[in-house]
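User: Show me a protein chain along with its predicted structure.
Assistant: Here is one chain, sequence first, then structure tokens.
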Amino acid sequence: MRKPHLRGRGPDLPVLDQVTQYDFEPGYVVFTQPAPKRLRVKAAGEVIADTTDGLILFESDHLPVYYFPCRSVRMELFERSDHQTSCPYKGKASYYSLKGQAGDDTNIMWRYEAPIPACPAIGDYVSFYWDRVDHWFEEDEEIFVHARDPYRRVDCLPSSRRVQVFLAGEEIADSVNGVFLFETGQPTRYYLPQEDVRRELLHPSDSATQCPYKGQASYCHARVGNKMHDDIVWTYPKPIEEATRIKGLYCFANEFVDRILVDGVEQPRPVTGFSHGYS
């Protein structure tokens, strides 16, 4: 069964929890669907994969993964390594490295040549470690972090509802001009104008993250009293086009502030992957 705090990672379809694909773990699923976009991967200055016939693989508790037909990959650039792994849901994976490369360019590609019967037919496909290659593209747009999930929707809606944020016993934000961000499988996020936030409490952080649906975020710490709350607020200075309404607005981590009130109603503290140390 999928772990509750990881349900936001795969397709947010509760009916999948009732599927019995693996007798030893009911509710755990692995499935694929066509990815009609042109997909390209670059590494070591070369386009190493280019296809319009890819697959997107969904697996419980995992981010979506793009798989490329072997015929769309420049296999002459690779050599098979001795590295192998075993997955109870897919089978044994073989790994490949770029010829003449070392360090981060080793074992960047994998293939399940003989997937187990319960697994989708991915034997003639390969995939790549996202952070071991240089660039990924959907059509001509570079994408970051992981494959975009077609089951995930992001809506950025202006709202006049009053949002109050409290941290360490103090109100640190109060706004009726926010943008509410609704993302499938995730808690509502409240993006607030800078003028409605006590910016004197904020201190720039060196942290930065990337999101395939919003762009690159920068972070701030918040000092209240004698305590510094690290990376508790973030902003998207240059979000991607679909999320332009949140440009330059501040969002506080629901998981870690004391309270968030919306029109006077306290919002429940969510439990997400962010709560467990990753975003």
